[in-house]
Amino acid sequence: MTKSALQIARAAYQPKLPKALASGAVKAVEGAATQSVADQEAIKALFPNTYGMPLITFEAGEAVKLPAMNVGVILSGGQAPGGHNVISGLFDGIKKLNPENKLYGFILGPGGLVDHNYMELTGDIIDEYRNTGGFDIIGSGRTKLESENQFEKGLEIIKKLGIKALVIIGGDDSNTNACVLAEYYAAKKYGVQVIGCPKTIDGDLKNDMIETSFGFDTACKTYAEVIGNIQRDCNSARKYWHFIKLMGRSASHIALECALQVQPNVCIISEEVETKDMSLDDVVTSIAKVVADRAAQGHNFGTVLIPEGLVEFIPAMKRLISELNDFLASNAEEFSHIKKSHQRDYIISKLSPENSTIYASLPEGVARQLSLDRDPHGNVQVSLIETEKLLSEMVASKLATWKEEGKYVGKFAAQHHFFGYEGRCAAPSNFDADYCYSLGYTASMLIADGKTGYMSSVRNTTAPAAEWIAGGVPITMMMNMERRHGEMKPVIQKALVKLDGAPFKAFASQRDRWAAETDYVYPGPIQYFGPTEVCDEPTKTLQLEQQGK
Ligand code: FBP
Fold first, then answer.
1. Do 121 and 70 touch, CB atoms closer than 8 A?
2. How far is CA 448 from the centre of its chain?
3. CA-closest candidate to residue 260, choices 511, 545, 80, 512
4. May I ask the CATH class of domain 65-215+428-465?
5. Are domains 225-308+386-425+493-549 and 311-383 of this chain identical in fold?
6. Is 76 in the pocket of ligand 1 (CB under 6 A)?
7. What is the DSSP letter of 162?
8. pTM of the model
9. Looking at residue 364, what is its pLDDT?
10. In the CATH hierarchy, which fold is given to the domain comprising 311-383?
11. N or C: which end of the chain has fewer CB within 10 A?
12. Which residues contact 231 (CB under 8 A, 6 or more apart)?
């Protein structure tokens, strides 16, 4: 593999570990018994073997020689910077326990386990991937591990390879499935342990015990760098409004963190839009107002950050999408015979009056996306909706109306951007490199301690890495019951942006000033070498959340 100079230098970086893990030998200290965040009786009944287990903290201890064991690892879902370091931490951890231990990677996600598609991860392979971005060492996939048939197919290869434990690196859904698998193997007494690791750039897998999911730090810093560059361009030419959509399928953590880093003129937070029951027109009006106010000061430029999941958080849009999904599912045949040029009018004539009015008000392109692009389950694919264009077109027409009414609105010219894939495989920041390596190493210690149904946890992450606290959290502790596809299911509670949380409050207390002034921050690229205050700084979100504790 040909490498850049940075990759070569970066390969030599030794990730920092919490003191207890770096000591070379640990002991597991058990805390109090746990319970799920809600629906305790229901979760307990579904997870009789893995419910109520204690929290685990690792402290320095005596070295113990364990018999050799084999471990399997799976990368699940969307890429997130640092995945390779979770695997290298896991590898180093099990090799430290016993150099005979082996690590097997299942190829292209959970599907690799079911299809018996795997490779042994040797030291040479691991060394190629240390401190690099991406999940390409074994690839990732979105196959859901849910059925007994899959669990049994997985067991066949687990037995064949003599695997004692499986580490699943994934987001809330993948860790929910890891917990179901752990319970299944425990109930069947198969003697196979399952450990989860918290991954997702979206930042929505976090709680009191999991301070952040890995990848969020690097992805936000990567986006913030590019947004900063755009803001500098914007402030140099002073002629464009930049509408920037940011990844985050559901929660707005990425948009909020980027706003805290770059101080844009506008940042929409989906959770606030939903809580305040704002309509699409309310969102558009709020942006148009900032545009007009800045124009009145002679500033015909600015930046607007938009979370990817916004459309589904606008209550009226949610109702429209739901009616459209149902209508198109039951009238697919008839709809397919309607001429393209008549489809819009046809839909307008069929929807309920409220939804029909909203649909008619949408720009042509967006209306088409809502009615045509459906996923295999018949749902509209919201991530394909170009929200940045939708909002800028609607802001333009709102400004035109205000102009006709005699209001001064200045000049409005928009540019559009979507930042998502650019940040998911970036070389991990020092924070993610250290955090991921520690998560992987901790997973190996949980395995050695015989644990199953636990998520690897590293806390106190705003302190220097040596003071981080490594341990394990029972996954059942994070669960509640939620309706999914019409059925009540045990799932890990998704962490949305809290409007009473410190990060949102910090943003809300400054946004009016950011809107009026041009006080942009230009964070620049992630620094991998240099002073610790530049290279090791955690996200603003994490700092603000931990300050309040
Ligand atoms: P995970 O939750 O699996 O980590 O993925 C998150 C994400 O990156 C979202 O931000 C984005 O909406 C989605 O994946 C895109 O999915 P895909 O990679 O399938 O296009």
1. no
2. 29
3. 511
4. alpha beta
5. no
6. no
7. T
8. 0.95
9. 82
10. Arc Repressor Mutant, subunit A (1.10.10)
11. N
12. 242, 262, 264, 303, 520, 522
Q: What one-character DSSP code corresponds to residue 231?
A: H
3-state SS, residue 474: strand
Catalytic residue among 173, 202, 434, 449: 202
Residue found by looking up tokens 């042994």 in the block = 120
- Decide if pLDDT at 435 tops 70: yes
- Note if 277 is an active site residue: no
Task: Give the lowest-confidence range in 92-96, 163-167, 269-273, 483-487.
Answer: 483-487
Q: How far is the CA of 267 from the centre of ligand 1 (A)?
A: 21
Ligand 1 atom with least separation from CA of 254: 10
SS3 letters for 328-356? HHHCHHHHHCCCHHHHHHHHHHHCCHHHH
Residue 401 phi, psi (nearest 5): -65, -45
What are the CA-CA distances from residue 181 to residues 272, 455, 523 (Å)?
36, 13, 42
Arithmetic mean of pLDDT, 107-117: 97
Residue nearest to atom 11 of ligand 1 (CA): 249
SS3 state of residue 168 = strand
- Ligand 1 atom with least separation from CA of 199: 4
Pocket flag, ligand 1, residue 248 (CB < 6 Å): yes
Return the residue matching tokens 């027409």: 397
Is the CB of 449 inside a 6 Å radius of any atom of ligand 1? no
The answer to whether the beta carbons of residues 453 and 194 sit under 8 Å apart is yes
Closest approach atom of ligand 1 to CA 174: 3
Phi first, then psi: give them for residue 406, nearest 5 degrees.
Answer: 95, 10
First to last CA, the chain: 45
Neighbouring-strand partners of residue 199: 214
In 3D, which of 368, 268, 247 has the Cα closest to residue 314? Answer: 268
Domain ranges of the chain: 65-215+428-465, 225-308+386-425+493-549, 311-383
Q: Which residue reads 């400004």 in tokens?
A: 399
Query: Closest residue (by CA) to atom 6 of ligand 1?
Result: 78
Q: What is the pLDDT of residues 83-96, one digit of tens each?
A: 999 999 999 999 99
Supply the pLDDT for residue 374.
67
Q: How far is the CA of 173 from the centre of ligand 1 (A)?
A: 12
Decide which of 3.30.420.40, 3.90.226.10, 3.40.50.460, 3.10.450.540 is the CATH code for 225-308+386-425+493-549.
3.40.50.460
Residue 383 CA, closest ligand 1 atom number: 12
CA 35 – CA 32 distance, rounded (Å)? 10
